[in-house]
Amino acid sequence: MQNTPSVMHDTAHTEIGFSNENPGMDHPETHADRSQDKPSAHGVLSIPSELVHHILKYLGDTDLVNTAIVCPSFRFISQRVIYRNVEPTEDKVIPCLKCFASYPHLASCARTLVLADATRHYNVFSNYFNLLRRALLNASSLTDLTILLDGPYARYLHGCSFRLRSLTTTLDWDRDFIKLITEQTELRNAMFGGRFVNDMVLPSATLTKLTRVSASPLVLAAVVPNRKIKEVELCLLQQELFKDDILNTASNILSYSTGPLTALQIITHLSDTSDALAALKAITRNLPRLNSFAFYSSDGAVSQELLEAFPEFLSGFECLRSLTLMSRNKADALHDKTFTATLASRWHTSCPSLQSVSLAGSIWLHNTRHGWVTLADLERLLRERQGLLLSRQKYWIEVDPKTISLDEVKSNLEENNEDAEQGNQMERQMIVLRDSILQFGGP
């Protein structure tokens, strides 16, 4: 529901979608409304509603709205699809909240909800936060919530019955916020972007299922130690934060994860090469057993000097398998295809465990038979291998068994074993590549 379409609701098929002009938005639902939205036990459909639901997932928003007017059964299923993933545009946030507050049965369909901060762009009415609370209280089935609302407003989310698995928020990290996340016992993935209030302590029994977190060093210090955090995104957006002492303290804190921590991504402002290299070395001192490391320069330029010095940094890792470097600066060394073409093979000498290198979108994978190859090369090799296997299979089907020698059989078995190992390695590399893409901020 990316564009938040209008949805047919009552028996007269009156639209009550996220329209600012619709007067019906503010009226609460009645028993008659709810009864009309229940699927008929003897509807026109003879196939299971689950199958219809699966089919309707492939329709666009406009088609879904049109489908909703066919019959009560179609309307019920269409609404479940339309309201499953809700991401209203900024001018539709308040109408969306009004819809959820007035029609609980629609709000309860939502699994994913993305809310921008309406207070940044509009002079919202004084009852805005109460409206937000009413809407979220009705969204009982939410599992993924993004609420970009800056400030101390977490109290308006207290007591909600949903149990989130993923939370992205800019709410202040204060006592009310700690109470909120204490209620969310199923949380596994979180991006905490709000202001950290000093002296806030997180109870040890909180966030026991959290495995992936993105936050500033202060928030990470409250969250990571003694929890099973496996993936971390460290946000150091101010230039002065990407320093040796700060990275040393932050990475030392991360080392107290009981996960253990296997993946780290850093988003920062890059300026001085020598300072950057010293800061990076602090990571290997405290987290030498990372499997995946990603670095994203949100500002500044990645220089050739820094990339040339990377072997010194990489040599500190014991089992690093995936390395990702990204930058917004399209003119820096990271985007120089000629310069970066040989970096993976050179870095592999300092870090033999390295299997995947991604540089500004260009991907290299290490293959024991072919060395470092691009993703396109790997796809070509997989196609060639598939063709070879089919050709070999055809030969052994058509050949006369009486003409086959023992040496030929042994040679075929050896080739099959070698090809199987190559295929397994390629599959493992694709898994490594998939796992190296952290689902946080990034470019």
Task: Give an overview of the whole structure.
With 443 residues, this protein is α/β, with parallel strands linked by helices. It is 40% helix and 16% strand. The protein is built from 17 helices and 13 strands. A 13-stranded mixed sheet has the order 1-2-3-4-5-6-7-8-9-10-11-12-13. Helix 10 packs parallel to helix 11 (273-286).
Measured on Cα atoms, how large is the radius of gyration? 27 Å
Calculate the terminal CA-CA distance, rounded to whole Å.
Answer: 24 Å
Tally of DSSP helical segments: 17
> How would the global form be characterised?
globular
Helix content: 25-40%
Q: Which structural class fits the helix and strand makeup?
A: alpha/beta
Mean pLDDT: 81
Total strand count, please? 13
Q: Could you give a short account of the major beta sheet? A: 13 strands, mixed
Strand order of the largest sheet: 1-2-3-4-5-6-7-8-9-10-11-12-13
Elements, N to C (H/E): HHHHEHHEHEEHEEHEHEHEHHEHHEEEHH
Query: Any low-confidence stretches, pLDDT <50, length ≥5?
Result: 4-16, 19-41, 438-443
What share of residues are in beta strands?
Answer: 15-25%
Quick take:
The protein is an alpha/beta fold and 443 residues long.
